[in-house]
Amino acid sequence: MASATRLLSIARRRQSSGSQRKRELSAPGGVERAVTPTVTLGDAVDRYLSEILAAVDKTKAQVLETIKGVDLASRPCAEITSDTLVQFAQELSDGRKPPTVGNYLSHLSAIFAIARPAWGLPLDRQAMQDATIVARRIGLIAKSAKRDRRPSVESMDKLMSHFADRHLRGRSLPRPHHAARTGRNMPVCRQLSERAKF
Q1: Whose CA, among 7, 10, 31, 142, lies 20 to 30 Å from 57?
Q2: Any bridge partners for residue 76, and if so which?
Q3: What are the mean pLDDT values of the chain's consecutive 10-residue runs (198 residues total)?
């Protein structure tokens, strides 16, 4: 009698799990999820770095390697949504300024842009775009502040004495044409001429 009850219990569980499986497969994208092996975001980053190596500079590679070390990288690609990415941006903002967080999301968005069309990975490009919009609106990401500082006379004096010391110690002094290449030759020349008048 006990074995019949046990067999009935097993049959009910199988039937229940079978109907659960049918519901999962009949849901939109269910067959695609069932057929596609579970690929994590870290796997997508690895693939991007190995296949797109020519277009990846050092900074981008370093940022993507850093992203591989966070919890988000261990999540399956199909589970990453815009709210997941916004939470990631919030985690990044601890100890980082908004332009840096924006830089991280920008580098990560390159993977979201090509993952589905190039490799068939279920990363949603629209989710990344939505997360970027939300992060910008709530202040997690921003553009870098414009820099307009010009060197003071004291700064120029320090630079000139540094290079003069280098010259006296036998190291070569940079040629004047190097200053023109910086794109700041007018302010530098103006300050040098003002200094020469004294």
Answers
A1: 142
A2: 40
A3: 60 62 71 71 92 80 92 93 95 92 94 93 94 95 84 88 78 52 58 60
